[in-house]
């Protein structure tokens, strides 16, 4: 993914204005561009917001996938959410499919996929992981390009997908600040990312290790061009001096806050929504407001490549995105996201930007940023 092709775009909005020309309209429902009739096709229809949505796949694609039948997915999404929602929705369309899901942390997905590729024993047909974490696999040759026709059919906005076709849009998870209401009052809750360096939170802030290039690392990379070199390094050093509690994922950071082991954390909106009312945790929105891209990848030398392609095409379609929304996650398609986000959740008039797309160097040189974070945070 070359730096010249990465541009800064808003991915999610609190309204659905300004989507004319994207190929997807929202006026009483969804409207898709007609698919090219280049082969015998299978049409999939869904009713969304009172309108009928038609998605088209060629019969030859489905026939090739059906011969393989099995699809193995390495994913960062929680196992219950995948098994009870995503898998169930996929099997409604393809009941003959055998879906095997392996739930792992972002770093586990990367290390396992790389080790299997180097050993010549690739097991996964789909990788579903955070973008920053997984891009090193592209550099290592682990990921295969895939010309996904559903991208054009759905009219995804520029910046929401990879023009070089290594990664395919799925989740755009809003990044928030979590705080334990038993330890922090709303009046004293963090209101900015600079508050993470406030001495009152020393030893009480949980963040996933920035060197993983996952949530915290991607957020910090987004702040870099906004703050500038000097102010950015000062903030990073301030957060480091506050002795944060390091975790392997934003979900683990959320758990630290929910149990009271930490007072504040950098987290993802879906963890809060999935536990809302069950634990003493609330969220604060800090500017700039960003969404973490968690796309899909097709591994090179996958044992069932046609099934992998079929799953990815389904996942980025309206049907797949609506299933994703039922897990509390935000689709990386701003029209579908605006339709599915809980009303009133986002502050009025707010736009969420794709995290770190304003900093192409972060995605083009992930190892460089991992090393920079280790030099600052020590992990």
Short description:
It is built from 14 helices and 16 strands. It is of the alpha/beta class.
Coarse structural class: alpha/beta
* Fraction of residues in β-strands: 15-25%
Mind describing the biggest β-sheet? Answer: 12 strands, mixed
Count of separate DSSP helical elements: 14
Low-pLDDT parts are: 1-41
The general outline is globular
Radius of gyration, rounded? Answer: 20 Å
Helix content: 25-40%
Element pattern in H and E:
EEEEEHEHEHEHEHEEHHEHEHEEHHHEHH
> Termini, distance in Å?
27 Å
Mean pLDDT: 85
| DSSP strand tally | 16
Structure characterization notes:
- This protein is an alpha/beta fold and 379 residues long.
- Residues 1-41 have low confidence and may be disordered.
- The chain has helices spanning 59-68, 79-93, 106-118, 131-139, 149-154, 215-227, 229-241, 250-258, 269-275, 305-315, 318-325, 334-340, 360-364, 366-377, and strands spanning 10-13, 25-26, 30-31, 41-48, 51-58, 70-75, 98-103, 126-128, 143-144, 167-180, 205-208, 245-247, 264-268, 281-284, 290-299, 351-354.
- The two termini are 27 Å apart.
- It has 14 helices and 16 strands.
- The longest helix is centred in the N-terminal third of the chain and has 15 residues, at 79-93.
- The strands form three sheets. Strands 1, 6, 7, 8, 9, 10, 11, 12, 13, 14, 15 and 16 form a twelve-stranded mixed β-sheet that branches.
- A hairpin with a 3-residue loop joins strand 2 and strand 3.
């Amino acid at each position: 993914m070359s730096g010249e092709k990465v541009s800064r775009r808003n991915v999610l909005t609190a309204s659905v204005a300004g989507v004319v020309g994207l190929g997807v309209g929202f006026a009483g429902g969804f409207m898709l561009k007609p698919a090219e009739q280049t082969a015998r096709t299978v049409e999939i229809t869904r009713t969304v917001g009172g309108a009928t949505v038609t998605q088209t796949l060629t019969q030859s694609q489905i026939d090739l996938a059906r011969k393989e039948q099995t699809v193995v997915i390495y994913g960062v999404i929680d196992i219950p959410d995948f098994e009870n929602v995503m898998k169930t929705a996929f099997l409604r369309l393809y009941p003959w499919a055998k879906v095997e899901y392996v739930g792992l942390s972002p770093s586990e997905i990367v290390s396992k996929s790389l080790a299997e590729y180097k050993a010549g024993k690739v097991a996964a047909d789909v990788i579903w992981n955070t973008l920053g974490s997984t891009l090193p696999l592209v550099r290592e040759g682990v990921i295969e390009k895939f010309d996904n026709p559903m991208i054009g059919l759905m009219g995804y906005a520029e910046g929401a997908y990879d023009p070089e076709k290594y990664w395919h849009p799925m989740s755009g998870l809003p990044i928030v600040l979590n705080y334990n209401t038993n330890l922090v009052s709303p009046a004293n809750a963090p209101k900015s990312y600079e508050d993470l360096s406030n001495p009152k939170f020393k030893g009480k802030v949980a963040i996933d290790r920035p060197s993983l290039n996952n949530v915290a690392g991607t957020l910090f990379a987004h702040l870099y061009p906004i703050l500038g070199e000097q102010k950015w390094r000062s903030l990073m050093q301030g957060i480091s001096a506050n002795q944060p509690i390091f975790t392997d994922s934003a979900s683990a950071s959320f758990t630290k806050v929910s149990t009271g082991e930490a007072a504040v954390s950098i987290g993802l909106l879906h963890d809060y929504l999935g536990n809302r009312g069950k634990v003493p945790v609330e969220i604060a929105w800090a500017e700039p407001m960003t969404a973490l891209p968690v796309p899909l990848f097709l591994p090179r030398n996958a044992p069932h490549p046609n099934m992998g392609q079929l799953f990815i095409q389904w996942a980025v379609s309206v049907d797949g995105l609506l299933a994703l929304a039922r897990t509390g996650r935000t689709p990386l398609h701003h029209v579908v996201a605006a339709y599915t986000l809980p009303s009133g959740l986002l502050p009025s008039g707010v736009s969420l930007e794709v995290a770190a797309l304003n900093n192409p160097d972060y995605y083009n040189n992930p190892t460089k940023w991992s090393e920079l974070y280790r030099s600052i945070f020590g992990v």
